[in-house]
Write a structure and sequence with these properties.
The chain is built from four helices and nine strands, in the order E-H-E-E-H-E-E-H-E-H-E-E-E. The protein is α+β, with helices and mostly antiparallel strands. Strands 2-6-5-4-7 form a five-stranded antiparallel beta sheet, covered by helices on one side. The chain has a four-stranded antiparallel beta sheet with strand order 3-1-8-9. Helix 2 runs antiparallel to helix 3. The radius of gyration is 17 Å and the shape is globular.
Length: about 200
């Protein structure tokens, strides 16, 4: 039985990706190159659910779940901006840009979470917090480097970067390679009321 690593996400338009490229480049100039593993901008998505290992025999049922939840939604606009870190700015492990979205996005995520849990995928223990991961702080980062990252986040003036008009949810497989993850879109579920 064949297994893939998979996740469910929302894509970003090219103009938002361009803004993320500019932000990432600006941040990279301020930080030692090996301190943060940066996510390639084309790989940045708004993740709704990381499924982990998925049997290929489950793809049809997952497609039905995602399509059933997507069709309940109307197209929506999300706003992107503000730099932050998990678990907190003073102890950064993950650098992110925030996403402001209408309550319908949370309803969509919750619906996907509930239905995938019923067929055996683990529930995410953390509450849904829409964000775009820019990079992950190296485990080998020194306290001085971590302090520098924290100061950089605190002093960075990252305001509103743009908006995205969301009309669909996408199912991706993730293949790990020596050069990082390679994402392949396996299917797209359009929202209801989307004109073809």
């Amino acid at each position: 039985m064949s297994v893939i690593r998979a996740f469910i996400a929302i894509d970003l338009p090219p103009d938002v990706q361009d803004c993320l490229t500019q932000i990432t480049n600006r941040l990279r100039e301020q930080i030692d190159e090996d301190t943060i593993r940066w996510v390639p901008v084309p790989n940045i998505h708004l993740t709704l659910k990381f499924l982990g290992d998925v049997s290929e025999s489950n793809l049809d049922v997952l497609k039905e779940i995602i399509s059933a939840e997507a069709i309940l939604q109307k197209p929506m606009e999300i706003s992107i901006g503000r730099l932050g870190a998990f678990p907190k700015v003073r102890h950064p492990r993950v650098l992110w840009v925030g996403v402001e979205a209408p309550p319908e996005l949370t309803a969509l995520q919750r619906g996907i979470e509930t239905r995938t849990t019923k067929i055996g995928y683990p529930t995410d223990k953390r509450p849904f917090f829409p964000h775009l991961t820019l990079g992950r702080v190296s485990r080998n980062a020194t306290p001085n480097q971590i302090r520098k990252i924290s100061d950089m986040i605190g002093s960075s003036k990252v305001g509103f970067l743009g908006a995205a008009f969301v009309q669909a949810v996408h199912f991706y497989k993730s293949d790990l390679s020596a050069n990082g993850a390679v994402y392949t879109k396996l299917f797209t579920a359009p929202f209801g009321d989307v004109e073809n």
